[in-house]
Structures are given as C-alpha cells and as structure tokens.
Amino acid sequence: MNQPAIRELHTMRELDTVARLFAHVWGTAPDGAPISAEIMRALAHAGNYIAGAYEDDRLIGASVAFYSDPIGTGLHSHITGAVQSRGAGLALKLHQRQWALTRGLKRITWTYDPLIRRNAYFNLVKLGARPEEYLTSFYGEMDDAINGGDESDRALTAWDLDASPEPPAPSSPELPADAVHAIRNDDGRPATGTADATTILIDLPDDIEALRRSDPGAARAWRLAVRHTLGGLLADGAQVVGFHDRRSYVLRRAPAA
Prior knowledge:
It is a single chain. It contains 6 helices and 12 strands. By secondary structure, it is α+β, with helices and mostly antiparallel strands. The protein has a 7-stranded mixed β-sheet. Strands 9-8-10-12-11 form a 5-stranded mixed β-sheet, covered by helices on one side. It is globular. The model has no long low-confidence stretch (mean pLDDT 92).
C-alpha cells in the first residue's frame, strides 16, 4: 500500500473538507464536527499545525495541533482523525514530528482514551510516546458515536522528540518474574488485584467501544477500575514503560530510597 501524501492545509475549502471528515469519523452531524473549519482557519493563520493525508487526492485523515507550554518547546496535538487501515494516522504523526523538529520543538503531547487498546498500542508501541497524567472526565459529557454513554477520561501523553531519531521498532517490554496484575481481563470484566510490586500490569478490554453498546455496566466497571488504578499509580509517581502483548499497560515504580 502506498503511503498517503501529507500536506499542510490553509484554505476554507480544504478545512471544510477536514471538518466533514472529522464529523464522519466521530459519527456526528456535518455541523457538529469536533472542531469547526473556522477555528482551524484561525489556528492555521496563526502558524499552527493543520495537515491532511490524501490518497489519490481524496482526504483520508487530518490532524490539528497548536503550540503549547513550555513556550518554544512544545506542540499539543488536539485532534487527529483518519479512515482506519489506510496508514494515515502514522503518516500524519511522522509528518507532525518533522514539522515540530524543524521549528526547534522538543515534545508533542496529546490526549487519548486510555481504554482503547488500538490507540494505546499505536501511541506507546509504534510511536514510543508515554502517558504522563490521568485526566478524569477531561472534556465533560460527549454525545458522539465514539464517546457517547461514557465519561471522557483521557491520558495525557508525551512524545519526547529528542529520545531517538525515529520512532522505535514495535516490541513488548520484558517482564520480570515478580510482575503483578493490578487489573486483569476476566472474561470481559475487570478483576482487580494487587499493585504492590515494582512492575505492574493493567489489562484493557478487548473493545471498549463495542462494550459500551452491548454491556454498559461492564464498560462502566472498566472505566472506574482503570481510572482508580492507572490514575492512582501515575499520581503516585509510577511510570508507564510500555504496552505488553497488545493488551496491558506496563508500569514501574521508582525503587524505594
């Protein structure tokens, strides 16, 4: 499969197309896209990042990012949406990375739903980014097709652009023999265990988006379990160091002084 062509976008015609794509991806009405063409126009005019991914001149993905604190060092990637299985998401992130490096930036941050396995794998394994903070109900109530029926918890994730010249080759971290499961996927529901170890695993549901529709109670149980466990560990200073077997966050606590 050929790589999508990436180009920066500026005109209202281009940005109207992006808004329609986002509305399609998020399952909203055309006038209810997560970000409007007018806001994107203002951001682009002010020198921020807006780019589209094209396949045979058809828009299949887009990303919007703006400068963030610390001033002169950071870029916050607010929204990226793409048609799945076309390679647009990775192509946009690599283009965004080069755009940031050209401007002397050191890191890119973004938020994602920490319950969505494919996004966790993409962010942690394919890109080498790391969640730094758990944000409870960050966007408040959302009623689009992706988030509807659940709270908008997010993981604030940072991509250190100085860490390596390119994203790492996908791999799972080696687990020590004494690693423990703080949350295990037990036949589709979260089973909580101990977090009293140096290396801790947190399983994710197979498909949280489908679970919200088929079993809202189980989806709610996953939300609360991961919020309490992942959020609590990050707040206590544990670090996410990888994503094991496409299923589990791997966290490590700092050794006791």
